[in-house]
Design a protein that fits this description.
The strands form four sheets. This protein has a nine-stranded mixed beta sheet with strand order 3-2-19-17-15-4-13-14-16. Strands 6-7-8-11-10-9 form a six-stranded antiparallel beta barrel. The chain has two domains: 2-49 and 162-367, QueA-like, CATH 3.40.1780.10; 53-150, QueA-like (Thrombin, subunit H, Beta Barrel). The protein has helices at residues 140-150, 190-198, 218-221, 234-245, 255-264, 304-309, 315-327, 356-367; strands spanning 2-3, 15-19, 25-29, 42-46, 49-50, 54-59, 64-72, 83-89, 112-115, 118-125, 131-136, 176-178, 202-208, 228-232, 250-253, 274-278, 293-297, 331-332, 338-342. The protein has eight helices and 19 strands. With 374 residues, it is α/β, with parallel strands linked by helices.
């Protein structure tokens, strides 16, 4: 795949790779996504706006330059912004590949960090020399002001130009709680959503504090995703239940939506509204109780996002999809092309009723006019 290096959310030539529930794989222009949806389906998106979560500064004790990337917090409440989980790097910025970034100076509990106008201390180390519990000084209003004045979006070397905050906000971004962009939502704008609604496809949102996708450290990356706070409105739960009653399909816009909905689902598949913290990892052994399909970016094997795809389809099908992504030169990363993967037939929770997708999937996969088998 080719790294998407321009911060364009909806390029005219964006492509979509589709993995059907029976293992068929085909591509089509992403603007034709609506053709794969039908009346009664429901899209659920993450409406989190992206924080300026990268903070340059210095380690006071040593005087050395550092970068702090905020990575998590326990609550989405606006006043609870003094304490974060954070990953700390040595000197440098996004122009140096994350895996090549030097480590920070040795950090100890109580160490002071000066991050532009913000002062903070290391509250504790979190079983890794670069992962810390960070405590900001000052009031919540002062912390928000410092983030706004000094912070920048978390960025990686494949996009060379500095990102602006609006580059990483989806069209429907609302509360500023994400640490990296919930970038699957870049594929949608309000015109697209309005068009889908006219066709009877529903749209709902939840809020999930999307965390870092990479730290550059293999040991630390193996712990991703970290615990992530979320909030699911009652209206979204009611929309999901109505979709089930009419045998529609729930399509998650992004891996964070999958993680939140599946974490909030009980054994009976019913989603609990309200606040929570997703602590689980969704992967090949996960039983999906809520989500029927996932619209996401393209992901590289070995990442936590790729492991989540294995909850929807089998390894052989993913391998064939990977081969097509490579052969056709799909673009990857947050401004890249998209993947739509339907949950494989027969993998539904026994708590769910049989839907029309189970009945028509063999026909759809066999005769889709844009089918391109690997």
């Amino acid at each position: 795949m080719i790294a998407a290096h321009l911060p364009i959310q909806r390029p005219a030539d964006a492509r979509l790779l589709v993995i059907g529930s029976r293992g068929a794989v085909w591509e089509l222009p992403r603007r034709r996504l609506s053709e794969l949806l039908r009346r009664g389906d429901l899209l659920v998106a993450n409406d989190a706006a992206t924080l300026p979560a990268s903070l340059q500064g210095r380690h006071v004790a040593s005087g050395r330059a550092i970068e702090v990337r905020l990575a998590g917090r326990d609550s989405l409440a606006p006043d609870e912004v003094r304490r974060f989980t954070a990953v700390v790097f040595g000197a440098g910025d996004h122009r140096l590949r994350t895996e090549d970034r030097p480590p920070p100076p040795a950090l100890r509990p109580g160490d002071r960090l000066q991050l532009g106008p913000l002062s903070a201390r290391v509250a504790r180390l979190l079983a890794h020399p670069r992962l810390i519990d960070l405590q900001f000084d000052g009031t919540p209003a002062q912390v928000w002001a410092g983030l706004a004045r000094h912070g920048r979006p978390v960025q990686y070397a494949h996009v060379p130009a500095p990102l602006r905050l609006w580059d990483v906000w989806t069209a429907f971004a609302a509360p500023p709680v994400a640490f990296e962009a919930p970038s699957a939502g870049f594929a949608l704008d309000w015109a697209t959503i309005a068009g889908l609604r006219r066709r009877g496809v529903g749209f709902a949102t939840l809020t999930h504090a999307a965390g870092l996708s990479s730290t550059g450290d293999p040991v630390l990356d193996a712990r991703l995703p970290l615990d992530e706070a979320y909030h699911i409105p009652t209206e979204t739960v009611l929309a999901i239940e109505a979709t089930r009653r009419r045998l529609g399909r729930v399509v998650a816009i992004g891996t964070t939506v999958v993680r939140a909905l599946e974490h909030a689902a009980g054994e009976d598949g019913r989603v609990r509204p309200g606040a929570g913290t997703a602590t689980q990892r969704v992967g090949p052994h996960s039983l999906l109780r809520v989500v029927d399909a996932l619209l996401s970016g393209t992901h590289e094997p070995g990442t936590s996002h790729y492991q989540l795809l294995q909850a929807f389809t089998d390894p052989a099908t993913l391998q064939r999809a990977d081969e097509l992504l490579e052969r056709r030169g799909f673009r990857t990363h947050e401004f890249g092309d998209s993947l739509l993967v339907w949950r494989r037939a027969g993998s539904r929770s026994t708590a769910r009723v049989l839907s029309r997708e189970d009945l028509v999937a063999p026909v759809v996969d066999a005769v889709h006019p844009h089918l391109t088998q690997v």
